[in-house]
Structures are given as structure tokens and as C-alpha cells.
Specification:
By secondary structure, the protein is an alpha/beta fold. The protein has a single domain (3-249), classed as Ribonuclease Z/Hydroxyacylglutathione hydrolase-like (Metallo-beta-lactamase, Chain A, 4-Layer Sandwich), CATH 3.60.15. The protein is built from 7 helices and 15 strands. A 6-stranded mixed beta sheet has the order 1-2-3-6-8-9.
Length: 287
């Protein structure tokens, strides 16, 4: 298969966005795209994703694959769809996430928690085609109930936030619908894909002295991951993850991110003055 994978790192949110290209057909897809957002001013922008779209000039962008509704960056999925016609894909349980956060943000009746904001809602075992390349969907919940991973040709997998680099560990499980036992089982699916399979990460938070990395083999994760390597038991992982989650702060961009990301990367509908607004619920999170 003549497929290439190019990864880009959004420094402000420590996020990796991946451009996957089938060279034979000229079809391409983007995994976990990021919208620029300045929280102090409220300004959004697309400099980061425009760089990727420039590199994809002349290709047919078929899909935007979202691994989940991110709580740490705003998705540029809607922008890419508007620019290219690509279909935005996410796991079907996004409807559960939408329902949860529609209540948190007190969304009005015009917001429907039915997933219609996305183009394709996928389940475990579903397959997508990129030219002659097959992308198989794995349900990998635990961080959120709607997390999915995308297995490309049984040689690469885009794993979202399930795991980070081995020296960082695993995703938090204290968001609504998150569960450490569920994440443990999801990771076992990924670790059983085969030692040579290359995992493409959604984030990297490197310790001082290590360069940014956006991919790693399954074998390395199995041997070295500080949370789930060396055959860590489920009970030990649950205890570790639960203890660590109690110490974590609420993500910096969780409130703006979720309002946009449950809308497939679209801003809330503009009000009668033509301006979109994000809500800030008070005294709700972090209790």
C-alpha cells in the first residue's frame, strides 16, 4: 500500500494532528485537527490547520477522523469540512457526550444530542476506505465513552488519548462517562494489535530533555509504559489512575473545547448581533 503519514504538532495544546495520504489515488484524511484559540481575547484562527491543508493541496480530502470529543483543544473539523467537503467521523457514543455537556452548558432545545452535527457515526468493526487502504474502527472508551481508535491496514493505529508516550503514561478517566477499568480493557485491545504496529498519538507532554514524539510501537508501549507496561494488572492500574486523577487540575480549555467539539468543530450559533458566544458555567467543574 502506498500510504504516507505526516504528523504536525500544535504547541499551544500539545496536540498531534496527522495527515494520511494514499499516494495512488490522491485521497487523504486528517486525524484530530486543531483550531487555534486565544483564550484571553476569545479569538479563533486556522493558521495551524491551514498549513496542513496547504500540504494537502491537490489531494482529495475524504475524511476528518475524530478520536473523541476533545477537552483540551478546539477541533477544526467543521472548518475542514467547509473548505474541502470532507466528512467528519466520530464514535457513535458521541450522543452520550453531547447529552452530558448539553446539560452542563444548558443548551437550548435547538441543540439536538443525536450526533447529526457529524457526517458519520462509527461503531466497533466499521470500516472506511482510503483508496485501497482499509481503516478499521476500534471502540476504545475509558477516557470518554465515545473514544475510538482507527486501525490503518493493520500496520498503524491512531489512538487518541488512550495512551501517551511511555514516560507519560495514560489518559485521565475522571471526565463524565470515563472509567479506569474500561480504559484498561481498551488498552489491552491496542496492545494486542501486534508488536510492530505503530501507534500514532494525539498528544505528547515530554519531560525536560526529551524531544516531541508523535508515534511509538506497540512493543515499546508494552515494555515501557509507566502506567500500563510490564503486564500491569487491572487492579493496579485502576488504583494508580484513580489516585492520579484526584490530583489533576481541570484542563485549561475544557469549557470552550467541549462547546465547539460536540458541534463537530463548529462555533455555537451566532446571536442576533452576529457574534457567537461561549458559556462559562460557574462553580460547577472541579468540585
Amino acid at each position: 500500500m502506498t500510504v504516507s503519514i505526516q504528523s504536525y504538532f500544535h504547541e499551544d495544546t500539545f496536540t498531534a494532528t496527522h495527515l494520511v495520504v494514499d499516494k495512488a489515488s490522491g485521497e487523504a484524511l486528517i486525524v484530530d485537527p486543531v483550531m487555534d484559540f486565544d483564550q484571553k481575547s476569545g479569538n479563533t484562527g486556522f493558521e495551524f490547520i491551514d498549513q496542513i491543508l496547504a500540504d494537502a493541496e491537490g489531494l482529495k480530502l475524504t475524511y476528518v477522523l475524530e478520536t473523541h470529543a476533545h477537552a483540551d483543544h478546539l477541533s477544526a473539523g467543521g472548518y475542514i469540512r467547509q473548505r474541502t467537503g470532507a466528512k467528519v467521523v466520530i464514535g457513535k457514543p458521541i450522543t452520550q457526550v453531547q447529552s452530558t455537556f448539553a446539560k452542563i452548558f444548558n443548551e437550548g432545545p435547538e441543540f439536538k444530542s443525536d450526533g447529526h452535527q457529524f457526517d458519520l457515526l462509527v461503531n466497533e468493526g466499521d470500516e472506511l476506505q482510503l483508496g485501497e487502504n482499509t481503516i478499521r474502527v476500534l471502540a476504545t472508551p475509558g477516557h470518554t465513552p465515545a473514544c475510538v481508535s482507527y486501525v490503518l491496514n493493520d500496520s498503524d493505529v491512531f489512538i487518541g488519548d488512550t495512551l501517551f508516550m511511555p514516560d507519560v503514561g495514560s489518559a485521565r478517566c475522571d471526565f463524565p462517562g470515563g472509567d479506569a477499568a474500561t480504559l484498561y480493557q481498551s488498552v489491552q485491545k491496542l496492545l494486542n494489535l501486534g508488536d510492530a504496529v505503530l501507534m500514532h498519538l494525539c498528544h505528547d507532554y515530554p519531560p525536560e530533555g526529551r524531544e516531541i514524539q508523535t508515534s511509538i510501537t506497540v512493543a515499546k508501549q508494552k515494555a515501557e509504559n509507566i502506567h500500563l507496561g510490564n503486564n500491569t494488572s487491572e487492579a493496579d492500574f485502576i488504583a494508580l489512575r484513580t489516585s492520579r486523577d484526584k490530583q489533576l487540575q481541570v484542563p485549561r480549555l475544557i469549557l470552550p473545547s467541549l462547546q465547539v467539539n460536540i458541534r463537530a468543530g463548529a462555533l455555537p450559533e451566532a446571536e442576533d448581533n452576529g457574534i457567537s458566544y461561549l458559556k462559562m458555567p460557574l462553580n460547577l467543574l472541579g468540585k
